[in-house]
Fold each of these.
Amino acid sequence: MNPYKILVVDDSIFMRKMITDMISEDPQFQVIGTAKNGKEAVNQVKILKPDAITMDIEMPEMNGLDALKIIMDIQPTPVIMLSSLTQDGARETIVALERGAVDFVGKPSGSISLDLHRVKELLLEKLHIAVKTNVLKFRSNPMWTPPIPRPKAVPRIEELPKVNKERTAFESNSVKPVPAEPQTAHQQGSSQVQQIVAIGTSTGGPRALHQVVSHIPGHLPAPVVIVQHMPPNFTKSLAQRLNSVSELHVVEAEEGMILQNGHAYVAPGGFHMTVARNGPGVYKIHISKEEARGGHRPSVDILFESLLPLKELKRHIVLMTGMGADGAKGMLALKNAGAVTTIAESEETCIVYGMPRAAVELKCVMHVLAQQEIAPKLAQAVCK
């Protein structure tokens, strides 16, 4: 079998050489060209027709985000973004994943051999996924069109706070987001939680979450807890991005937060997230640095397992696109423990049909749904 053809795009000569050397260590890949900016990348894609691309974000003349959009329009090709591990880099990476990038890898620092070794492992692993991803299928499907950002539902007069602080828009570079503060049981008031939605996802998840969370109504009478496999910084940017397109109030979870209906909580990268009872109708988030499960922290299974003793809650469980099987055993246990709804994303809309497939094979899935069908089904199940 001929090796997969890879195009490397980066404005740094040093980085182009380093990434090319990393990729060339795998005999299944061949670097057939390089480009120093997005404009060159677009031209090279037309000529070379690579099987996959590694793309830097910050480049002169045309950046990686603009190049990605053009490439996905003219010749859809799997793209792995090379992202800086800063907050700005995280925000741009989330946008890239929404625009069609398959995944991302943090850029190597070049100063620590262990760091370089880990980056190489991740890059090769993600390239093996990317070259087998049919991005044309997703680009030609109208369900992938990002929804128009919707305003938050207007609260009733009695729910209005004394000080109405505007939420910071995701794209604003001039104003820093106001950090969410953990809520106490007293602050949570009389709005008791009787249902909960739990979502697990991995590769392809940011785009899937954008589609699903943006179509969940803000008056949902349940909190939504989310595990997306991602490193620190990126989950905060993901939560901010989801908050900007959803009627739900979406935050990165913090220790001690009290779950509230109409809110969504994204597990912070590098930490497990669990839910525990904190009184009648009151539930609290716990964050921990316990050992990774199956190589993942946060782990979907650990979140799902924390819901097992909460049998008084109506539990609605979702697994979407992702490599591996994280969450499948937890979903099975929850179904056996009386979960009201279990949903797996269908193969036709998954970037990687791994985690949902594992759940289907365990026969614990009540509904196998295309991505655009998940939010309506959740709203129907929770609001009935």
Note: The longest strand covers residues 29-35.
Amino acid sequence: MPQSSPAKPGLTRAPWFRPTAVGVGAVVVLAIVVLGAKWLRSTAAVSQFIATYPGHAPLPSWAPDGLPAWLNVLHFLNMMFLTLIVRTGLQVRFTTRPQGYWKRSNKGFLKTKGQPKKISLDLWLHLCLDALWVLNGVVFFVLMFATGHWVRLVPTSWDVFPHAVSAALQYASLDWPLEDGWVNYNALQQLTYFAVVFLAAPLAILTGLRMSAVWPTNAKAPRLNKAYPMEWARAVHFPVMGFFVVFVIVHVVLVLTTGALKNLNHMFAAHDGGDWLGFILFAVGVLVIAGLWLLARPLFLRPVASLMGTVTRN
């Protein structure tokens, strides 16, 4: 019998093809957005719109000026916790063979009727960081409303929306709005910070709670679990983390490209100058976070986790 000819191998793409195509596509889209925004700003109607709404919604007369030291400290702690939470969250999601496990000691104040569940060290660290992040957020909310600084994040006028559109057009055209974050955020910043603080953060907390062991089981709360199924929490929790990552990247880029020294003084040194103090404090903070990132591994986590429970390798 005649031998059949071997099948022709299929065409394969080089591993660099997809990321290159995505990169080229992103550059093309960005160019279209920039050119479109520049064209819009050249029209009389849009030019008049930006003149009417320059991008900064006015604050009430009683709004406090400046960024206090307590806000600088909480901002750094938020940056630190969020960075480590993203790291441990990715480890929990994608690690198939954890290098250690932790089980809570069922005695003292935390004693429960049911036996504690064994979880990975990565999840233990993730939950500890979550708790510290939430505590930092509670302190922030208390001080924000006690001092009146909430007005910098919460819009008090509908004018914030046309101002935000104006700011977006200015950013998109690469002719960025003039900013003085020490006095007032522009409207697009205000809406973004509002979304982070009052929408994304609560979503992260509520979905994280639903996925955690502290949430009541189906046997104890069948109606609650039916109204709020685990699948919904899982479908929302990871995209919320992605939102935080994108926000941080854009936030850092804008901080460093719209007057880095002054912005870093606002955020880390609590004053409105152009010296290097804020940059130095920022650099020290980055080194601290990098050090904690390196220490967040089983060799260093086991002794700490053993203080709160039993640590095993499997």
Note: The longest helix spans residues 230-257.
